[in-house]
C-alpha cells in the first residue's frame, strides 16, 4: 500500500512539474536547442577570449578566425581579427605570421605583408614562401624579379607546397 501511494505521488509530481515547465518555457524544442547552442558558444567565446588575453596562441588564432569570419554570433571585425592574429604572430607562430601577411596583402600593404611572410618562411612555412614568390613574380610591394620568384617557388615546393610544385613543374618543362 505504501509503495502504491509513493508511486501515485511521484506520477502526480512528475506531471505537475511538466506542466509548470511548459508554462514557464513555452519554446519549441528547436528554440531550446538553439538557446543551448547559443549559450555554449557565448561561454566558449568568453573562455577563448580569457585564454587569448593570457597569451594562449591557439586561443588568439581562434579569436582571430571568429572575428574575421563574423561567425559564432559575433560581428565581423577585420581590425580585431588582425589584432589577435598579430598577437599570436609576435609569439613566433608561423601560421599566424603568414595569416598576418595575408591580411596586409588583402589590404594592399605588400611591404608589410612581405615582412610577415619572411618571418614565417624562416620557419619553413611553405605557404608563406609561395606568397613571397608571388610578390616577386607580380612586383607587388617589391621590384618584379623572376629569378627571386623562382627561388621562393622552389623553396615552397621543397617544403611540400603543391601549388609551388606545379609552378616549378611548368617552369622546368619550358
Would you write up a description of this structure?
There is one protein chain. By secondary structure, the protein is an all-alpha fold. The chain has two domains: 32-91, no CATH class; 94-174, Serine Threonine Protein Phosphatase 5, Tetratricopeptide repeat, CATH 1.25.40. The protein is 79% helix and 0% strand. The protein has helices spanning 2-24, 29-53, 57-69, 78-90, 94-106, 110-121, 126-138, 146-158, 162-173. The longest helix is centred in the first third of the chain and has 25 residues, at 29-53. The protein is elongated, with a radius of gyration of 27 Å. It starts with a helix and ends with a helix. 30% of the residues are buried. Residues 9-27 have low confidence and may be disordered. Keywords: Signal, TPR repeat. This is Sel1 repeat family protein. Residues 1-22 form the signal peptide. TPR repeats lie at residues 94-127.
Amino acid at each position: 500500500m505504501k509503495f502504491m501511494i509513493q508511486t501515485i505521488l511521484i506520477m502526480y509530481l512528475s506531471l505537475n512539474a511538466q506542466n509548470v515547465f511548459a508554462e514557464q518555457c513555452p519554446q519549441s524544442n528547436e528554440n531550446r536547442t538553439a538557446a543551448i547552442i547559443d549559450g555554449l558558444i557565448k561561454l566558449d567565446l568568453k573562455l577563448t577570449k580569457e585564454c587569448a588575453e593570457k597569451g594562449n596562441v591557439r586561443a588568439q588564432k581562434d579569436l582571430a578566425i571568429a572575428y574575421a569570419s563574423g561567425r559564432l554570433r559575433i560581428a565581423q571585425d577585420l581590425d580585431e581579427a588582425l589584432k589577435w592574429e598579430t598577437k599570436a604572430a609576435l609569439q613566433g607562430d608561423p601560421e599566424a605570421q603568414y595569416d598576418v601577411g595575408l591580411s596586409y596583402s588583402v589590404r594592399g600593404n605588400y611591404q608589410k605583408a612581405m615582412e610577415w611572410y619572411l618571418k614565417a618562411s624562416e620557419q619553413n612555412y611553405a605557404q608563406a614562401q609561395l606568397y613571397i614568390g608571388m610578390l616577386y613574380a607580380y612586383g607587388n610591394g617589391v621590384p618584379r624579379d623572376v629569378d627571386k620568384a623562382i627561388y621562393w617557388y622552389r623553396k615552397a615546393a621543397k617544403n611540400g607546397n603543391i601549388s609551388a610544385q606545379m609552378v616549378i613543374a611548368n617552369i622546368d618543362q619550358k
